[in-house]
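During the reporting period the student researcher (J.K.) took over the structure-prediction task from the postdoctoral fellow and processed the backlog of single-chain submissions. One of the processed entries is reproduced below for the supervisory committee.
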Amino acid sequence: MTDAAVLTTQTQARLAGYENRFNTLFEEYFHTLGTDLEVPSFSRFTPECLNLLRDLSLRGGKRMRVALVYEAAGLMTTEPAGAVDDAALSVELLQTHGLIHDDIIDDSPTRRNGPSTYYAYRHRFPDHPQAAIGLAILAGDLALALSLRVLLESEAPPAIRQAMVEAQTRAASDTFVGQIIDLERDFSPNTDEEALHCVADYKTARYSVLAPMQLGLLAAGGQPASFDEELRRYARLVGIGGQMRDDYLDLFGDAQVMGKPMGADIRGGRRNYTVHAVLAAATDAEKAVVESALGDPDCTEETIGAVREIAELRGVPTRMRGDMQRYAELASAEASVWRSRWRPEAVAFFEYLPQWAMERIR
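J.K. obtained the following structure tokens:
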């Protein structure tokens, strides 16, 4: 077995371990929440909301953010404090919030091979569309509040608890800015690549990579503020590569694996990395095909297939994979300098992680 194959096997095993352990923790959290959350006895909607939050949350994937929390704590110690579990719960509750609101923004019917929270409410209240969207928004808001509450109620020392709340609050606010500029991007046909990188940084990197690492280090007694610039550089590189991968898979991926229909970004008018690359490479006639599909919610599978054929004809998949590989290598190089400061065997995870993410599109 090659070194790369060994690393892949080891990484998958570690991620599976985190996933299994955390899923049990998450299940216990929602069981306890059902009795801890103060709810008026007459309310039927609140328990339904909690059930929808639980259902979406427990349909999670690889729990990559959770892995980043535990691995970041492992940079400093093999026996992190119990606060690391609180940090992991917080990042996944914030993720649940983001998924719910994303699906409202994108009018997405499915998420994680099941109904989105928004569409679950639409089915529940077919004659009351405003109530459905209002309840979905509030479900997302509740997940955000719970993500901060779990940190506020942590048994970590007060200074660590406060620092974790501050880090997660910054991550949330940065993500909201990212969502705003993401929507703004779609009104700008001439968006350049640097603007796409900025969206990826704010919308993805800061809450999906940077905050989990900060929380993990804090839970282990570290001071991530001392290494803020290099953590941000690493997170930004990983975030850009990750967003490129997501955009790539939206057109070139497998709907069954993704758990949602392909071409959703095109139907939603999203001028993402893939669309930007296709338009940059296409002829005028091909651009017209792509532009006609952008923002058309009734765009057929055949039209999505035509856009994909244009992209393949112009070599877009190959170029995008090359760009993703380049960002993976830059992120790995950034992590490699941590070996002189933190546990080398833990640093190796962060060195290999960007490359492992690339393996997922092959």
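The committee noted the following: The longest helix spans residues 3-36.
J.K. will present the remaining backlog at the next meeting.
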